[in-house]
Amino acid sequence: MLPNHGFRQVKGLDTEALIRFAHSIAWRASASTLPDMKHATLEKTVEDGLKEYVLGKPLEGPSLYPVSLTQISTVGEAHNQSPYIDIKPIPNLGEDIDLNISIMRIYLDGLVLHIHLPPIPADHLTSNPVFLGSADYVLITSVTYEVSFQYENLLHLLRECHPSLLGNR
Prior knowledge:
About 25% of the residues lie in helices and about 25% in strands. With about 170 residues, it is an alpha+beta fold.
């Protein structure tokens, strides 16, 4: 395992409620006209699909828009970040090529939700405990704040907006 990274196996979560919660944030961010949400706009068919789940469409397994969780395992700077669309690299695990999956990234202080967007290979989801609802437990990945995307992103924003605050970082 990589330094500063880990995972937690968690049983007993209400994964359906967590999936609907994540879908609700993604749908609302995409449908919003707020300037802060401009980087969270989804295709209309995806936005409508998320809305259907929020309004009660039955979930079977991880849903068409699977959700994974990453815990930031050490305390860092508190800040807000709006949801946005990103590309998540999935390393080669015996396949011919690495995968790059589109996601909506939602940051909640200390917890990151990835809503995976179509197309997603079916074999990527089957019984994969990283995705809520795929198994009878959830595998939550973790990373320390000091090597997290959140930390790097905050440094990037500070360099752009307030370089004097960084000192030698």
